[in-house]
Amino acid sequence: MQRLTSIQDLRNNRLADKTKSGYRSGLNMIESWIREHGDSSLLTSAGNINLRLFGYDDFLKFIEWTVRNTNKKPGTLSGYQSALRHYYKDAGIPVPPEFEDDMKGIFQGIRRLFADEDQLMSSRES
């Protein structure tokens, strides 16, 4: 059996539709944050994240704002990072190394913050 497909089709097929949908949702959140709180020059004319301009420090500002101002859980925040890394790879742009290295420590801190808050809340309820 011969399949008619392209390399791009194979790349697009590496993720389940649900994962793609989750990534798109995460990117939409980052784009909304850029429009409302960031620098609109970080968006393309189509309103997507301009990966040539949006850097690691911008992502850190987004994460910091999200932790301070929303009830997003650590898994959701980590999903934003995964979505952005996938977006870089899809665009053929190297993922900045900080997204791999420094983010591990930051997400450990986020998980610890949430665990401490959960423990405090449960001790108040007892």
From TrEMBL:
It comes from the Eukaryota. Keywords: DNA-binding. PROSITE patterns: CB (PS51900). One of its GO terms (molecular function) is DNA binding. Residues 1-92 form the Core-binding (CB) domain. SUPFAM superfamilies: lambda integrase-like, N-terminal domain (SSF47823). This is Core-binding (CB) domain-containing protein.
